Amino acid sequence: MSLTILQKKDLNHFIERLLAQYRVAGPTRSNGGCAFDLIDDPVDLQLEYATTILPPKKYLLPPQEILFEFNKDENGAVHPPKPDQPTVIFGVHTCDLHAIQLLDTVFSNGHPDSIYMDRRKNTLIVSVECLTPCDEHSFCKSMGTLSADEGYDLHLTDLGDAYAVEIGSEAGAELLQNANNSSPSKENIQQLNAVLSEKWPKFPYRLNFDVSDLPSLLSMSMKSPLWNELGERCLACAACTNVCPTCFCFDVKDEIELDLRRGQRVRMWDSCQLDEFATVAGGHNFRKSPASRQRHRFMRKGKYILEAHNHLGCVGCGRCARACLVDITPVGVFNELHRQLEVEGKL
Amino acid sequence: MILTSPYAPVAEQTSADYQLFLPTFARILKVEQLTALEKVFTLRLPDGQPLGHRPGQFVEVSVLGVGEAPISISSSPSRSEDTFEMCVRKVGDVTSAIHRLGPGDKIGIRGPFGRSFPYEKFRGKDILFAPGGLGLAPLRSLINQVLDERALYGRVILLYGARNPSELLFKDELKRWSERSDVEFHVTVDRGDETWTGNTGVITTLFSHISIYPRNTVAATCGPPVMYRFVLMELFGKGISEGNIWLSLERRMKCGIGKCGHCQINNVYACQSGPVFSYKEIKGLEEAL
B213 — contact with chain A (CB < 8 Å)? Predict the structure, then answer.
């Protein structure tokens, strides 16, 4: 929409004003790295951070959430939970921003998921421009997520003494009321251009092919021997899907209190990597081998989700690669499939 | 390779006014024990509101405190004004809890969900039903729909297989079907007992009993995963085309609305694009059968 300038010295004041109105979540120091957490003091916010173990997805699709509460004495009456307080997620990297756009699409497409959508409508996103790669596992540039034109309410680019703030929505513009922001000077624009052009070459391409070829590459790789190799290595621990910003599969379970009357139905993150994910009550498992489950995961990331929702299911954040105990990485998998097809003369 | 529009058929969602995960509580009117493991429940929604289902659709059924499970609707729309039936095998936590319920108890219902058998397109054709075991439960909805508008169809052939005589479902109804002159009814059990005088052998052995006109025949089948390949071979052997073979596929389903991921068959969500598919639609999906 438009660009404005916020001096760094005014940032804390800006966030304090947000805290008066909103729950504010953002990257904070944690165990030698950073983790998204709720903050109550602006000084806890770490806007220069190299990724997090869990993505900010947890504020939109919590690891576990109550769908409704019940009391069996109430003759079947069920009570949906109260809505969350309005939330600002501050300091979102652009890979995660793309992931949130995918989640928005998934949960609004077809039969809209009102629980997600209500929470999303109640959430504002302030993203930040990444100026250096997180680590060797990030491949955002290959996945086209190194920048973002939309999906944020405000987007911050560090210009040194100030932030260039792109206003992405009217709600974002309202956040800035009385923020002491100013119109960008000619010099600010030059600084912004310089920062962005310096940044670009710092990020490597890690895929050995263009990402637009990924769906067809996967289509041709249904029978690849690589899946069996991955299946033999995979521990089926589900770390990859638990840290993924785009994984949205869930389970639904009932929890009951010790009085056996009151309880709640909850939904919780689930993982296609777990043995029982596709197992029906009679015991038949439709995706029995770890190889078939690994294949399913990568097919979703690079093909199925794209076909269904017009967004790639992988944003190149590298979290699953960092989390994997046996070094199964999307870059490694996609490049190996590409290599195999090249060797077979199929490309 | 893939269906032209694998995610498209969401139009059959009915009961638009229910909230996503909030069940409506139906009252159990009647429970009938069919076999050692299977009971059929007759249910009535509040104020007798119709479920509004089509043959082949399913509901998410819940017992508060235990959980929710997808169950196919066993009654036909033609016989469901203010009640509907579902046949439940006691096989997991939720279905065991359902089995403990009796008349007057309430049970949570969401749905109906999923794609149904396109029976209007079957009119004018001969229909071959081939249910195996509990596969009769979802097919019964279609069978009774067809029988209730019998004049609109050609021949009705019903081949039913169960593991043994004690596992045959809906025995009274089987008897009535067997007595109808306008239904060609054949039943078999894998293993008979001392009282069994009928056919023995798996369901595929029944195909030699019938001859059909393949160009004008539609087949509908449902059964355990292991059954499909063998039944399909028989159907192809009879010359029925891929687009005229309809199957209902079982999957784990937690949401019913194409989100939770459990029912996915390659790129297709069975709860939305299925559970009813033509063979033509799923033959490229490696995970289907």
Answer: no
CB contact under 8 A, B2 and A307: yes
| Dist CA B154 CA B142 (whole Å) | 15
Q: Which residues of chain A have pLDDT under 50?
A: none
Backbone φ and ψ of A30, nearest 5°: -160, 120
**Domain formed by B119-282, architecture:** 3-Layer(aba) Sandwich (3.40)
Average pLDDT score over chain B:
93
CB-nearest partner of B286 from A109, A222, A308: A222
> Do A51 and A97 share a structural domain?
yes
Q: Residue A167's beta-bridge partner residues?
A: A2, A154
**Mean pLDDT for chain A overall:** 96
Last residue of a domain, one of A159, A184, A202: A202
Q: Do A174 and A268 fall within a single domain?
A: no
Classified by CATH at the fold level, domain B24-113 comes out as Elongation Factor Tu (Ef-tu); domain 3 (2.40.30)
Q: How many residues in chain B?
A: 289
Q: Residues of B with CB below 8 A from A111's CB?
A: 10, 13, 20, 257-259, 272
Question: CA–CA separation, A222 vs A296, rounded Å?
Answer: 10
Q: Nearest CA to A295 among A203, A189, A220, A207?
A: A220
What phi, psi does A196 have (nearest 5°)? -70, -35
Mind telling me how many Å the CA of A54 is from chain B's nearest CA? 20
Taking phi over 0 as left and psi of -120 to 50 as alpha, with beta for the rest, B175 belongs to alpha
Q: Are residues A32 and A160 in the same domain?
A: yes
- At residue B14, the pLDDT reads 39
Q: What is the pLDDT of residues B203-214, one digit of tens each?
A: 999 999 999 999
CA B109-B255-B264 angle, 5° bins: 135
Cα dihedral B29, B32, B37, B38 in deg (nearest 10): -70
ipTM score: 0.91
Report whether B235 contacts B245 (CB < 8 A). Answer: yes
Closest C-alpha among A236, A240, A232 to residue A324:
A240
Q: Which residues 229-268 on chain B approach chain A with CB closer than 8 angstroms?
A: 250-252, 254-255, 257-262, 264-267
Q: How many C-beta atoms surround the C-beta of residue A218 within 10 A?
A: 22
Tokens of A21: 């109105």
For chain B positions 33-72, those within 8 Å of chain A (CB to CB) are 62, 64-69
* Spatial CA neighbour of B30 closest among B41, B19, B22: B41
Cα–Cα distance list, B195 to B161, B165, B198 (Å)? 17, 9, 9
Task: Provide the domain limits for residue A246.
Answer: 211-343
Phi and psi torsions of A302, nearest 5°:
-110, -5
Say if A69 falls within a structural domain.
Answer: no
Q: Using CA of residue A197, residue A202, residue A208, residue A212, what is the dihedral sign?
A: negative
Residues 6+ apart with CB under 8 A from B238: B128, B207, B212, B214, B217
Place of tokens 């699409």: A105
A61 φ, ψ (degrees, to nearest 5)? -130, 85
Nearest CA in chain B to A67: B21
Q: Which amino acid is at B113?
A: F
Query: B92 touching A, CB under 8 A?
Result: yes
